[in-house]
Amino acid sequence: MPLLTEEHRARVGRSTSPRTETVTRREIRRYAVATRQRDPRYLAGDGITANLFTRFFEDIPSLDALQPNGQTADPLTHGLPLARQMAGGSEVTFHRPIRPGDVLTGVRTLTGLEEKQGRRGAALFCTLELRVTDAAGQPVVTEVHKRILR
After folding, report:
1. β-strand partners of 86
2. Three-state SS for 56?
3. Rg of the chain over all Cα atoms, to the nearest angstrom
4. Residue 4 burial (C-beta neighbours within 10 Å; 0-12, 13-18, 19+)
5. 3-state helix/strand/coil string of 86-147
6. 131, 139 in Cβ contact below 8 A?
7. What is the pTM for the complete model shown?
8. By percentage, how much of the chain surpasses pLDDT 90?
9. Residue 141 class from Cβ within 10 Å (0-12 exposed, 13-18 middle, 19+ buried)?
10. Angstrom distances, CA of residue 86 to CA of 8, 58, 90, 138, 149
11. Across the strands, what pairs with 129?
12. Distance CA 97, CA 53 (A)
């Protein structure tokens, strides 16, 4: 019996509200220190790592909003039949370098939802896309992220 209903499938194509943030040297440096980066560009706030921009467009959650796995509920996948989420890989395309002072807007979209049966039972495969544009609306970063729910 399928786990996904038409209501679940209707989520495909839904997006988060656009979120606009300004890249600062301080945020780049803070992230570099927190993730123990050694690259002098990151420590000086001149460069940016691939992982920074994905979290850059999220709210800072309160501790009581964290789930047992340390994550927050994703509005695009929350309430799907299987709740245990695992990363299934990411593909990141930088269309241009990200620099301090850039004003960027990010929008996440659920672009795919597929149910599969495996040796360990049912699994849901979610595809999420983050599109980041600059103040002129030009693409800066595109991330396609796969999430596996069991």
Report:
1. 148
2. helix
3. 17
4. middle
5. EEEEEEEEECCCCCCCCEEEEEEEEEEEEEEEECCEEEEEEEEEEEEECCCCCEEEEEEEEE
6. yes
7. 0.83
8. 41
9. buried
10. 19, 19, 12, 31, 6
11. 109, 144
12. 12
- Residue linked to tokens 């786990």: 3
Beta-bridge partner residues of 87: 147
Question: Which one-letter DSSP state was computed for residue 17?
Answer: P
Per the structure block, which two tokens stand in for 87? 């990363």
CA dist., res. 62 & res. 35, Å (int)? 20
Spatial separation of the C-alpha atoms in residues 100 and 13, rounded to whole Å: 31
Tell me, what's the pLDDT at 126? 96
Confirm if 50 and 92 have CB atoms less than 8 A apart: yes
Structure tokens at 56: 């850059």
Contact 113, 126 (CB under 8 A): yes
